[in-house]
Amino acid sequence: MEPLSDHPDTLVLRDLAWVRTLARRLLGDPDLADDVAQETWLEARTAPPRRLDGGLRGWLATVVRHRAQKLRRGEARRQARERAVAAAAPTATGDSVVERAALHRELMTAVMDLDEPLRTTVLLRHLDGLSTEDVAARQGITAVAARKRLSRALQLLRQRLDRGHAGGFVAWSVAWRSHLGIAPAGGGSLLAWCLVVGMQAKWWAALAALVALSLWWWWPRPAPSVAPVAVLEPGPAAGAPVDAPPPIPAAGRTALATAAIEVVDELGRPRAGVTVLALAGGALRQQVASDATGRAEFASVDHDEWLCAAPGMVPLRAPRTAAAPQRIVYPLGLVVAGTAVPPAGTGAAVELRLEHDRPSPWAAGLDAAALAVLAALGVKERELLLRLDAERQFRFAGLAADWSGALTTDGAWTLRETSGLGHADGATAVLLLEPVADLRLELGAPFVVRGRLLAAGVPTAGIDVVVVAPDLAIGSAPRQAQSDGDGRFAVTVPRPAPDAPWRGELLVGTDGDDFAQRRVEAAGGRPEIDVGEIEIGRTLAFRVRGADGAPLVGARVHVVGNGRAFTSGSTDVAGNARLCGVPADAAWATVRAHGHRLARVALPAAGEVAVQLDRGNGIDVTVRTRGGELAADLRVRVEAERLPFDAGTGPGPLQPFVQAFPLDRAGRLELGDLAPGLLLRIVAIDETGHELASSSVVAPPLGRIDSLELVVDAAQFHVTGTVRDAAGRPVARARVYAEQDGQALTARSDGDGRFRLGPLRAPLAAAHVEIVHPAFPTWLRNDQVLGPDAPLDVVLEGSRTVRAWLRQPDGAPLPAGRVEAWIAFDGAATVLGRVETAGEVRFERAAARPGRLTVRFGGREWQQPIAATATDVEVALPAVGQLHATCDRSQLEAGERIAVVVTPLEPAGEPDRQYLPGEVDPTAPAFVLLLAEGRYRIAGEARRFGGGRPRVRAFGAPREIEVTAGGVVQLSLP
Predict the structure, then answer these.
(1) CA–CA separation, 376 vs 391, rounded Å?
(2) How far is the C-alpha of 5 from the C-alpha of 24, rounded, in Å?
(3) At residue 275, what are phi and psi to the nearest 5 degrees?
């Protein structure tokens, strides 16, 4: 016979107290699950009185009376709503008992199915009743990590109940409240409830609960003046009330003189401040906001559906029914919530943006007026906008269980997520794989670059100013602004590390042409910088005519000076072009038009430049497929033994010319102003550089335009695929990168995890493919086949965070200094470490597979294997000393950087080159190198980068040093 204690249903009843606590946490509103008796029992158990002047009975009577009065006040406020929906509570039957046991078992089964360490975290928190700090101490982790585990476990429980319960998580929630939310007050039920409590608690606690409940039941009080509270039963999906009439078909719909609806949440509570739109075929008819009772009334409206919207919530559409008033359930759903902390002293309002990976179905068919109303609420099809409240809190609600997206900010604020529940994508976005609460964001104020643009001393408006910040994440767009009527501009730039020095490039121009370029640098902690007045040059007008005097349309004008093109433009239908920002040192311009010879003209100080072009030659290239379709997505590569275009200076040097040009939308390329009689090879290529068709031609003589058509054999195709996690869920916003022979293809996965690379004309036999997402280890292959019949379906494995504790032989942590550390995996990307504090290195998104950790400093390396499940590792290192380096920068040339080259001698090792930071005090020993005990050769190098290979010169004489444990060696360069 099966032992009673081992039966799952018996375990459920035995642990009823902690199951009810956990259910309140899952449902998000514990007050609805507590009654007067339960509150009295909890207070008697957790906070008994220090003195009992009136005896225990008197103290219990006072507590119960206060709790009962509080309940009566709440019932009076809900009287109107309860009268409309009140019904007698059904008598408990055998079926309801079975349903209660099934709900208990369903919840406990879901908990026990959680993976470790999530399961233990939930049991310690809700079964043993430990605090988050105690749970962290039990599991040997930080409190932040414990909160992250607990939040993750509760999210997984909601998802599993949503998938496994009929009607989803909302229906399960309603069923739980209906059957288990309030302890029964009848005699038999009361005795059974106390018996269950006694199975877990001590006998005196059960006795105290029984006394408190008895006092509450028998305490004299007037008859209740409100109807009994209706029991919420599992019902239809959100948006339709219980027993709602069917939607009214369009043919039978009539205009209403008045119409009213009641907006409630999934627990039946009224929702105030909800904007309700009356729609007819998606067109807005009227809009009304719900009052404090959740009621919205309309006058003389003809519509077929309602739309409910509120700031920070996903809207809900519901069909119109014949009910009067119609009740609409607008559920809270899952939320993305937390706290955002801006820098101290910041008074500006901060707006957060929640972007959805998949489009929302509620926006289908809405007219412009309805979309405008929603936009005013900060609600759009792919995003929600919300300002932080006075407490710096935010909450986006109404999200589905399978929701994923990103959290960003307006302006150039930077985001840092410190709770570990999100995944930073650069400095301006936090990617979320699912709805999570308890997010903690730290906002960084933007860095402002100000200045003024002048053209020949006159303020210039409408000029683009772009600031390129090299410390932004790859793929982040540069920030830009336009000059105003006074020529002033202000560009806000995200600054990931506000306390660190900042440098960037400022570009001034329009239509892709740079009028001016300036390097911008700022010290750490500085909020803005004024670059002053920037002179962008003068304005010139060009008038271009052909040999017959007719205006030439579309002629290209390039202003050239000091060996580079400054700005360019095209002529209009009158043959005129106006170029702004022409520098004072620009000496000449080139003018080119198809079928005409290139002209080189000198530039005056001001005024108009008249240009006349003579007839030239050219080749018009067209690329088609064998089916006759234009191939506008390809490129054409031109090969010749020297420069094939006439530059106006005679034949160019005799060196090979190879350059690829894009086709226009008509699949054509115009090659003009060619050197007559020069042999050209013209090749059609795809994005990866594969040759699809080619032809050798001779450039025609002057005055003639030839035509050339290339026919490609292969039809274009795209490489498609999906990105999913180990649980089979789609992963959105993953960056897909493929490369072969120097040609690269990039794409991003959409909300369903799908991506598309291409187009391609020929398969890639052995491509290098990387798939990057901040929540997963990088997926990479070096021999991937990409073709029309080879879909790329990728599963991203789970990741972990590894902390390495670097210890010396005496157990002391490694002191602060330059340390490189990485973990290499077989078949996965290498993960670089980030030094958190002295002796601690953190590795984010490490693959859950065995690897090898390498620590390098001072030209030597130490390695240690890492298990697939390890999260904390101690690395034994030799005793170390320090090298403090200073530099006399007065002996440096412009553009040079200083490197300290350390070569281990005993024992021997590889040279280690470390560059001194350029923004530190030249005489301060801010540059610290860690070196293990032994002998080293130290040398200095001065390097200038740019303009080809770097130029290197010795910076001081080499010297040998000996490093001892804990010792400090001072070094001055040169």
Answers:
(1) 23
(2) 26
(3) -80, 120
pLDDT of residue 225: 34
pTM beyond 0.70: no
CB 698 within 8 A of CB 676: no
pLDDT value of position 759: 78
Residue among 453, 482, 479, 483 nearest 468 (CA) = 479
DSSP secondary structure string, 873-935? Answer: EEEE---EEEEEEEE-GGGPPTTEEEEEEEEEEETT---EEEEPPTTS-TTS--EEEEEESEE
Please measure the distance between the N-terminal and C-terminal CA atoms of the chain and give it in whole angstroms: 89
Rounded Cα distance between 814 and 878, Å, is: 9
Q: Is 678 helix (H, G, I), strand (E, B) or coil?
A: coil
User: Would you state the torsion angle of the CA atoms of residues 343, 345, 350, 355, taken in this order, to the nearest 10 degrees?
Assistant: 0
Cα(472)–Cα(158) distance, integer angstroms: 36
User: In sequence order, what E strands does 663-716 have?
Assistant: 668-672, 679-685, 691-698, 705-712
Q: Where are the alpha helices (DSSP H) in 201-250?
A: 203-218
Residue-wise over 109-125: b if at least 16 C-beta within 10 A, else e? ebbeebeeebebbbbbb
Predicted local confidence at residue 922, as pLDDT = 47
Total count of residues recorded for the chain: 974
CA distance 416 to 418: 6
> What six digits make up the tokens of 708?
């050339």
Q: Which helix (H) or strand (E) holds 41?
A: helix 36-46
Write out residues in the chain with pLDDT < 50, as ranges. 1-20, 22-34, 36-37, 41, 54, 57, 80-82, 84-93, 180-244, 250-251, 474-475, 920-923, 947-948
Query: Residue 399 corresponds to which tokens in the numbers above?
Result: 């999200």
Rounded Cα distance between 8 and 15, Å, is 11
Phi, psi of 348 (to 5 degrees): -70, 145
C-alpha–C-alpha distance, residues 18 and 131, integer Å: 14
How far is Cα 464 from Cα 466, in angstroms, rounded to an integer?
6
How many CA atoms does the CB half-sphere of 453 hold within 13 Å?
32
Q: How far is CA 132 from the centre of its chain?
A: 28
What tokens appear for 767 in the block?
């491509």
Q: Is 513 helix (H, G, I), strand (E, B) or coil?
A: strand
In angstroms, the CA 457 to CA 455 distance is 5
R_g of the chain computed on alpha carbons: 37
From residue 829, alpha-carbon distances to 478, 781, 799 in Å are: 28, 10, 12
Per the CB < 8 A criterion, the answer to whether 277 and 284 are in contact is yes
pLDDT score of 212: 46
Residue 78's Cβ-count burial label (10 Å; 0-12, 13-18, 19+) is middle
Across the beta sheet with 799-807, what order do the strands follow?
834-837, 840-847, 799-807, 872-876
Token duo for residue 365: 């068919």
State the amino acid at position 133 in one-letter form: E
Distance CA 741, CA 736 (A): 17
Region at 782 (left for phi over 0; alpha for psi -120 to 50; beta for the rest): alpha
* DSSP 8-class letter at 123: I
Question: ω into residue 974 within 30 of 0, thus cis?
Answer: yes
Handedness of CA 701, 702, 704, 706 (dihedral sign): positive
**Cβ-Cβ contacts under 8 Å for 122 (sequence gap 6 or more):** 22, 111, 114, 150, 153, 154, 157
Give residue 651's region: left, alpha or beta (phi > 0; psi -120 to 50). Answer: beta
User: What is the SS3 assignment for 671?
Assistant: strand
CB atoms within 10 A of CB 443: 19
Report d(CA 692, CA 278) in Å as an integer. Answer: 58
Convert the pLDDT of each residue in 624-680 to its tens digit.
888 788 887 788 999 998 888 875 555 556 788 999 998 887 888 989 888 888 999
Q: How many helices and strands (H and E) does the chain possess? A: 13, 61
Amino acid identity for residue 841 in this structure: V
Quick check: bond before 325 cis, omega within 30?
yes
**Which of these, 574, 726, 558, 693, lies nearest to 624 by C-alpha position?**
693
